[in-house]
Every structure is written in C-alpha cells, then in structure tokens.
Amino acid sequence: MAAIELIERWLRVFVQGLSGHLSILSRRFRGEPEWLSRLRARSLEMYFSLPPEVSELYVRHYEAPSLPEESLIEMTDPGDQRQIPADFRHLAEDTEHPTAIFVGSKLVHISIPRNLEAQQIELLPLAEALKKHEPFIRELYQRVTNSSYADKYTYLVHALTNAGVFLRIPKNLQLSRPIRVVYVLDKPREAVFSKVVAVTEPGAVASIIEEVHGLPGADESVFGHHTHLYSLDDSSLKHSTLQNLSHGQTYVSNRVADVGRGSSAMVVGAVIGGQVSKVRVDSSMHGDGSSVNDLEIVFGDAEQRIDVTANLHHIGFGTQGRVLAKGVVKDKAKSIFKGVITIEKQAKNTSAYLAEHAMIMSPEARAYAIPSLEIMTDEVKATHSASVSQIDPEQLYYLMARGIPEQEARKMLALGFFEPVVSMIDLNEVRWGLRTLLESKWGGAFTELFEEPEVTVTSLFGTHYKYRYGK
C-alpha cells in the first residue's frame, strides 16, 4: 500500500508539473497545435527529471553543461529584427547552393536555386513544414521522444525548439552542390534550439552542411541542436556539422541517422569552439546492406570541456559501420570520447569499427577514450581501438632540429594528427573549411601543406570561416 501511495503521489506531482510547463510553453510558443504544446511540456518535464548521463558505462566520465534553467524559456525569444553580420552576407548572395541562414533563432534568409525549385527539392522553415507535412512531423517527434536514443538534451531541444528547417530531396535527384544551413549567434544570453529533419528519397544523393558560429560579445548563449537524417532505400546522404562557437557559449547536439536498405550515410562532426560541448551521434543501419561512416574531430584549448558519444546500431543484415574520432587538447582543456557498437541478433554479416584517439599537448590537459561492444549474434566482424597519448618528444625534436620553432612544430604535429581523418572527407567545402578552422584556431594558417589542385580556401568560403577566439 505504501508503494502504491508513493506512486500516486509522484503521479500527482508529475501532472502538476506538466500542467505548469504546458501553461508557460503555450504562452511562449503560441498558435501551435495542441499535440505539439503537450509534447513540449512532456519533453521539458523529462529534461528536468533525467540525469546528464544515463549509461552505466559512463557515469564517471561525462560533462554536464551548466545551463541557466530558470531563464532558458525567456532566452528563446528571437527579439527584434535581425541582420546578417558582414562576414556572412556573401552567403545570402550565393545563387548556387540551397541556403538557410539564422541569426539567433530568427530565419533571415532562405533560398533555393531556380533549377532545383523546378525539381521539387524542399527547403522549408520548420514552422511551414509542420503545416505542410504535419502527420509526418508529428509521428517523427513522437517516435524520437519515445526512443532509446533520447537523452536529457534531446528532450531539451524538443521542448524549446525555436529554429530549424525541413529538407526533402526527391526520388532519384542527385545534387552536385551541398545544402547549407548556417547559424550565427551574435547576441549575449540567447538560447537557440534547432531541429533539422532531412529526407533523401529512394535513389537520391545529397550533401548538407550545418555551421554554427558565435561572434565576440555573444557570451552566455546556448545552442541546442537535434538533427534527424532519413536516408531512404538506395539513397546517399552526407551530413556535416562544424561548430565554431566562442568560449563563453554552450553547445549540446544530438544527431540521429536512420539508414535504409542499400543506402549510405556519411556523418561528420567537428567541435572547435564552445566552453562546454556535449555531443551524441546515433547511427542506425535498419536496412539490409546499409552503411554509415562517422568522422568526429575535436580541438580543445584554454578550459574547454568536450564530451562526444558516437554509437553504431546494426539492425539490418550485411551492414557496415565505422566511427573514427580524433581529438587534440592543450592548455587545461578536457575531451571525452565514448561510443558503443551494438549488433542485433538478426544483423549477421555485419562489419563494424570504432576508433577513438586523442593527443595531449599540455601537462594540464586531459583526454579519455572509452569504446565498447554489445554483440548479440555471430558471423560478424567488430573491432574497436582507443589511445590517449602525449605529443611525441622525438618527433618534436626532429622538427626543431631542422630549424622549425617549437610552437610551429607543435602545430604541425597536431594538424598532422588530424589530417588522416580530414582527408577522408570527400566534400571540398567541409574538408577545407575544417582545415582552415583548425589552423586558424592555433594562430595562423599554412594551408599549402595540404595543397590540392584547383582549390583555394577563400573562393570556397569567403570571409566567414575563421576562428575568432583566443585563450
């Protein structure tokens, strides 16, 4: 009886909390369908009730962003009219790439080249997609918020979503240029929570680049991110996220890739800025013969704290999955790489690989790598590797003995450590943009080390790919 009374009391508290959150969220996000208001309230309740890390494997190794919870809802207000900062205006003039630009949570520019409009590609603000594709969006939201992949920060983004886009690439359409979604945080104490849904229909081929930039003076801002990728049967989808926030900003990100029969997905994530960053990637190979290639790069300095979890879920027959994560930390920075390969009972003939490697450049920097396996069948190949090492003194001595100053030698070794992963990215815009950010964060660029025919960094990016923050 005591247990029943305790449960009933908890339910009363839960319902009261849900009602309170529903009232607050309804005032902030007016005009939305009732089901969405209730989903927001339930998601906020789940956010407050869940711990930062639920896996028993990682209870001692995680970073928990310190968020201003009492004012988060107020911080989601986009404010008055927003203007595109000067360094990013060239993106709005681009007539070759489908492009969406957010300043804070305000969508200030969205465009599709005319030739792609005629081919029925969709790049819609999330609010418009909700009206046009409400049954699909509703089912997706409910499935995501009830899945085993949902964590504390999944619920936070779904509770407070105030930005985002819906992308659909029609059947058999093969895009030669990437779609760009750019976020610029230019105001202090602002919270942006973006939801992106991307669907490649059967036979379609597409690339998507999401960029998150923070400008000087926009401290104490929060960027939350949930991207859901649907690669339907026999399609190919490449998705990259480049995070270039300031050291005074917080970043939480969840990326989910659902890959269908015979389809492939490449997922690239780079964490360059931010004070505290918590990232989770779940790649699910549902379809027989599907494949995922996940590349993660982290560069931390000063007192940055970066927590990246990359999981592979093998469900279909004959699937192939790979995660390769590399990180460099210096000064007092800390990085954590985690990940699990899960192979279900029916997923025979699977090949899976998970590698996590970190280099420590300073005595006070810290790095951890924790890969693991959960295999529920036979006839599979699954391996993992992990290493955390300090900079090789012999390599450093070799370079210095040939007249290279110590700081330049350290920089060369760090960038060389990243390069095997960077060179695997087969999209020029992402590969060169990432090199530029990594080099400029260290202080100055020498891209001639990675010179490729007919490639120039400035022609690809204009002026906005720069790391703006020192220690």
From TrEMBL:
One of its GO terms (biological process) is iron-sulfur cluster assembly. Residues 186-417 form the SUF system FeS cluster assembly SufBD core domain. InterPro entries: Fe-S_cluster_assembly_SufBD, SUF_FeS_clus_asmbl_SufBD_core, SUF_FeS_clus_asmbl_SufBD_sf, SUF_FeS_clus_asmbl_SufD. It holds the Pfam family SUFBD_core. NCBIfam families: sufD. This is Fe-S cluster assembly protein SufB. The lineage of its organism: Archaea, Nitrososphaerota, Candidatus Caldarchaeales, Candidatus Caldarchaeaceae, Candidatus Caldarchaeum.
